[in-house]
Amino acid sequence: MEQLCNQQINFLALNEDAILLRVSPQAYRRNLDCIVAIEPHPNKQLSVKLQNLDIDALPSGQCTDDYLTLYDGRTQAAQFLAGAPNQICGNRNVRTIPLADSYTTQRGYLTARFRSGPTNSIHRGFDMIISAFHLAPCKDNEYKCYNQRCIPENLRCSGFDHCGDRTPVCLLTNEAKAAVGVTAILILIAIIVIVAVCVWRKKRQTTFNDRVKQQKQRNHFEHSVAGESFKVKMNGQVH
Questions:
Q1: CA 97 to each of CA 37, 60, 80, 94: distance values in angstroms, whole numbers, following the listed order
Q2: Measured between alpha carbons, how far is 98 from 103 in angstroms, rounded to an integer?
Q3: Considering Cα of 104, then 106, then 111, then 116, what sign does the dihedral take?
Q4: Is 42 exposed, middle or buried (0-12, 13-18, 19+ CB in 10 A)?
Q5: CB 40 within 8 A of CB 150
Q6: Which residues are bridge partners to 88 per DSSP?
Q7: Along the 239 residues of the chain, how does pLDDT read in single tens digits?
Q8: How many Å apart are CA 230 and CA 234, to the nearest integer?
Q9: DSSP of 27-76, one letter per residue?
Q10: How does DSSP classify residue 80?
Q11: Residue 53, Cβ neighbours under 10 Å: how many?
């Protein structure tokens, strides 16, 4: 997010349907005042989901100089995003108000402002997933969420909750199901072939071992017969 400070992101111009704004993978910098405005595709709204929230806060849960604010519009003059705290801070141990699964813009545009004070921070900030959607009916190339939102198919298995309601969107399409079916059949055939080869080799080895055993028994028998004949012959010579 710091690289996008004071910029406007246009989903249509970028040919995107979602974006991840991340303050920092480590501790965020001090004295930040970062404002980013997001414009969705025409006739679409934005879903905002916060993850890994870690912004400095007092033990009471009150925000310090560090906080995130979300506005439902193009600028900070717009209303605060419905349902979201005016100042968002804290983490899983310290939080003022429990966060919802997601928040939704009513006017389409979203403005996010993150501020940090002069004190060095040991906190890492947040991840904010912003996704464009419209309400059902959905098109053929869209997925219908449980909450009746329509999102593009390419967001189904991205690893994020773009529906905003924890819908298990990473499901197989018909084409993927067919591919999985064909793959399963090929694997089954390969297993059958391997088992058949193993059984054949085992039978072959068993047959070979039986032949060797029979040959040994035959040799032993012939040796025994020869020995008895020799004894009889020697006894005859003695008499």
A1: 24, 11, 15, 9
A2: 13
A3: negative
A4: exposed
A5: no
A6: 68
A7: 778 888 999 999 989 999 999 887 788 889 999 999 999 999 999 999 998 899 999 888 889 899 999 999 999 999 999 999 999 998 877 766 678 888 999 988 999 999 999 987 789 899 999 999 999 999 999 998 888 999 998 888 777 888 888 776 565 455 555 676 788 898 999 999 999 888 888 887 777 666 767 766 676 656 665 555 545 555 555 55
A8: 6
A9: PPPSS-EEEEEEE-STT-EEEEEEEEEEB-B-TTS-B-S-EEEEESSSST
A10: B
A11: 20
Q: How far is CA 85 from CA 33, 90, 162, in A?
A: 18, 12, 21
Please spell the DSSP secondary structure of 85-100, one letter per residue. Answer: -SSB-B-SSS-SSPPP
Q: How far apart are CA 42 and CA 109, in angstroms?
A: 10
Q: Judge if pTM exceeds 0.85.
A: no
Read off the tokens for 40: 């969705």
Under 8 Å between Cβ of 37 and 75: yes
